[in-house]
Amino acid sequence: MIPFVDLKAQHAALREELLSAIGGVLQSCEFTLGREVAAFEASFAEYCGTRHGVGVNSGTSALHLALLAAGAGPGDEVVTVPFTFMATASAIQYTGATPVFVDIDPRSFTMDPAAVEAAITPRTKVLLPVHLFGQTADMDPLMEIARRHGLVVIEDAAQAHGALYKGRRAGSIGDMGCFSFYPGKNLGACGEGGMVVSNHPEAVQRMRMLRDWGAERKYHHVLKGYNYRLEGIQGAVLNVKLRYLEAWTEARRAAAARYDRLLAQADVGLPEAMAWGRHVYHVYAVRCAERAALQQGLAEAGIQTGIHYPFPIHLLQAFADLGYPAGSFPHAEQAAREVLSLPMFPELTEAQSAEVAEAVRRLAVPAQASLASVT
Ligand SMILES: *Cc1c(COP(=O)(O)O)cnc(C)c1O
After folding, report:
1. Active site annotated at which positions (predicted)?
2. Protein residue with its CA nearest to atom 5 in ligand 1
């Protein structure tokens, strides 16, 4: 069986180092925030090319606090994309602001800058592009539009640790960048975790208070805050794993290059790495005409796959209140129908890649044939 993601391989390789790091926290008893978290905030911010990092308990909390620091609240609008994980839209709704969607560019799967202007109103406060699957959005035109309209830019970089846009790290281009350290992400905790990176000292100060009950110091609560602290054990684990992130990213990119080569003749659409940056392949998603059949065929061949994401946010029952009918965002809707994520993790071997590619070549049918079969 070839798993979709193999966390066991990663943890087997790091077992001794991780146990020793966790042992250090058992010794210090700094279980929430503390020195390991502070050290990780400093090194991850440095890795991203930003001055500050605010460690929190999930990527969702990172988005929520960044939006609060941007001043988003009831009556405000936040422009984002419908082709993403639901956390992006939920975090907007946590603040009381309204998510306003714009379609994606079908080649990069990220926010289409040409669609943004029409979505901006006097209520728009934040532009929130998502660096989906490990590739950044086209940030230059997005930043230009945001600056012209006085919008705060928050990057959802939960899938893009180490990705580059014209030489700059994901998360460092807008005003704030939000990361998730959910175990399956490119840099994952042994549990939940997240971080906001930023160069704005006032926003950072505000988020540091908000994650810890709005307190300036103990019991001096100057804001209505949250319990969003990053755990000490996760900080210690992430300090170990950060040292491997670049090697893991190169391994992902090598695995993606193997798929690109082996699937060049297959009847699937391959993911496009845009010229503007470095794709870190959190997800390797192909497009296929008969997705259900291909996914089932692969499962029967012992190959696990995923779908990121089967429904665009605006068509989820949970977001029906936003009132977007089907057909509102054709590129997002088509992507949701067609994408299939192949096994992708740093330890994926050449033999495993070859086996996956052989099965995809054998099972995928051309778009034409699938069209003929329904008419
Ligand atoms: C994972 C993810 C999140 C949420 O992160 P959690 O740590 O699971 O809360 C937000 N946005 C995107 C695009 C994600 O992939």
Report:
1. 185 (proton acceptor)
2. 59
Instruction: List the chain domain ranges.
Output: 7-102+112-242, 246-374
* pLDDT one-digit tens code per residue, 56-105: 999 999 999 999 999 999 999 999 999 999 999 999 999 999 999 999 99
**Cα–Cα distance, 208 to 56 (Å, whole number):** 9
Q: Is the peptide bond before 309 cis (omega within 30 degrees of 0)?
A: yes
Predicted confidence (pLDDT) per residue in 281-298, tens digit:
999 999 998 999 999 999
- Does residue 375 surpass a pLDDT of 70? no
pLDDT of residue 369: 60
**Ligand 1 shell residues, CB under 6 Å:** 58-60, 84-85, 87-88, 130, 156, 158-159, 180, 182, 192, 194
What's the fold here for domain 246-374? Aspartate Aminotransferase, domain 1 (3.90.1150)
Question: Rounded to the nearest whole angstrom, what is the distance from the C-alpha of residue 374 to the centroid of ligand 1?
Answer: 36
Does the pLDDT of residue 370 top 70, yes or no? no
- pTM of the predicted structure, to 2 decimals: 0.97
* Residue among 57, 83, 85 to mutate when testing ligand 1 (max atoms within 8 A of CB): 85
- Identical fold for domains 7-102+112-242 and 246-374, yes or no, is no
For a ligand 1 pocket test, name from 61, 128, 182, 307 the mutation site with the most ligand atoms within 8 angstroms of its C-beta: 182
Residue 374 has pLDDT above 90, yes or no: no
Tokens 């082709």 sit at which residue?
83
Architecture (CATH level 2) of domain 7-102+112-242: 3-Layer(aba) Sandwich (3.40)
Burial 133-168 (b: 16+ CB within 10 A, else e): bbbbbbbeebbebbeebebbbbbbbbbbbbbbbeee
Please state the atom number of ligand 1 nearest to the C-alpha of residue 185. Answer: 1
Overall average pLDDT of the 176-182 stretch: 98
